[in-house]
């Protein structure tokens, strides 16, 4: 049986006057790949899952002082059915109290930019190795920069495989930050795209590496970006999710075990173990990431999410 997924729909929403994030029960927390700043009204990217009839809220761009609870009261509470992925424990707890079903789907790697993560020997020795081949730098946003990122993504490692959709931001747009590592001749060897959910936090969206890139390129990018962000007041850099991985799987619920079992088919396609080891180099704090849905998180919802995001096509090759 094939699933037909409707195109992504973006909408700018009417909203109530902004309330202080300090009054929020979850503070500045947002789901992964949601961002703040640069907009005057909430702008949501929503995909309609036709069989379950749920609205998958893939991304949101919120005004700088707009809390998750405010968005919930202004819009999400009125949806008859909805799904949000990439929720941390505080957000999952809030949604659970509103009657949403929640399930752990992986873990998020959080690096304290005031800590030792960027200065660990496993990181610095790779940075020194990469210096012989080029340097990292930030590229200001421009249409040309966006075009160059798309071109690099097409030729990067795994660029020829089926691509995932709406699980992370992949386009260089205003409000995102792009850091690249290039050789002396200007050829890109690696790139990372970063979004900002709050002034003190940043989230890694896209990590790209050229097939023939020398060792240490990605470590150099994160060390350079981390230093730049720290100078600007950012204190926490998320390396994003390690999906289907759990620090302790002994207490997983049946639905969570099912998500992990299905996800195992993808772990080898994109070298998930290698990505997990890379993130571990920075000695991050690991915290659970939840998939949340209302009224329920059924097998049908999971199947549609896998189809809509491209996971199913990727697993099938």
What can you see in these coordinates?
With 317 residues, the chain is of the alpha+beta class. The chain folds into 2 domains: 168 residues, no CATH class; 128 residues, Gcn5-related N-acetyltransferase (GNAT) (Aminopeptidase, 3-Layer(aba) Sandwich). Strands 1, 2, 3, 4, 5, 6, 7, 8, 9, 10, 11 and 12 form a 12-stranded mixed β-sheet that branches. Helix 5 links the parallel strand 10 and strand 11. Helix 3 packs across helix 5. The longest helix has 15 residues. The chain is globular. The two termini are 17 Å apart.
Summarize this, please?
With 317 residues, the chain is an alpha+beta fold. Helix content is 30%, strand content 28%. Helix 1 links the parallel strand 4 and strand 5.
Q: Based on Cα principal axes, name the global outline.
A: globular
Number of strands: 12
The count of domains is: 2
Ranges with pLDDT <50 over ≥5 residues? 1-8
Percent of sequence in beta strands = 25-35%
Oligomer: single chain
**N- to C-terminal distance:** 17 Å
Helix content: 25-40%
């Amino acid at each position: 049986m094939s699933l037909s997924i409707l195109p992504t729909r973006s909408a700018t929403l009417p909203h109530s006057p902004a309330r202080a994030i300090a009054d929020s029960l979850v503070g500045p927390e947002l789901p992964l790949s949601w961002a703040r700043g640069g907009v005057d009204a909430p702008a949501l990217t929503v995909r309609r899952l036709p069989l379950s009839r749920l609205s998958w809220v893939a991304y949101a761009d919120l005004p700088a002082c707009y809390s998750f609870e405010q968005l919930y009261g202004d819009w999400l509470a009125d949806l008859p059915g909805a799904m949000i992925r990439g929720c941390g424990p505080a957000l999952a707890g809030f949604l659970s109290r509103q009657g949403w079903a929640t399930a752990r789907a992986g873990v998020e790697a959080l690096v304290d930019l005031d800590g030792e993560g960027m200065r660990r020997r496993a990181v610095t020795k790779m940075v020194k190795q990469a210096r012989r081949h080029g340097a990292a730098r930030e590229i200001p946003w421009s249409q040309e920069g966006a075009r160059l990122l798309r071109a690099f993504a097409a030729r990067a490692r795994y660029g020829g495989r089926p691509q995932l959709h709406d699980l992370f931001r992949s386009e260089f747009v205003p409000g995102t930050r792009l850091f690249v590592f290039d050789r002396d001749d200007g050829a890109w060897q690696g790139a990372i795209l970063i979004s900002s959910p709050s002034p003190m936090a940043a989230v890694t969206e896209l990590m790209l590496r050229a097939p023939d890139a020398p060792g240490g390129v990605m470590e150099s990018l994160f060390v350079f970006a981390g230093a730049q962000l720290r100078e600007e007041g950012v204190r926490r850099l998320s390396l994003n999710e390690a999906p289907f991985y759990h620090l302790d799987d002994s207490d997983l619920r049946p639905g969570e075990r099912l998500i992990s079992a299905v996800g195992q088919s993808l772990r080898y396609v994109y070298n998930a173990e290698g990505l997990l080891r890379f993130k571990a180099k920075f000695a991050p704090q690991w915290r659970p990431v939840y998939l949340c849905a209302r009224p329920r998180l059924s097998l049908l919802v999971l199947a549609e999410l896998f189809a809509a995001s491209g996971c199913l096509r990727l697993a099938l090759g």
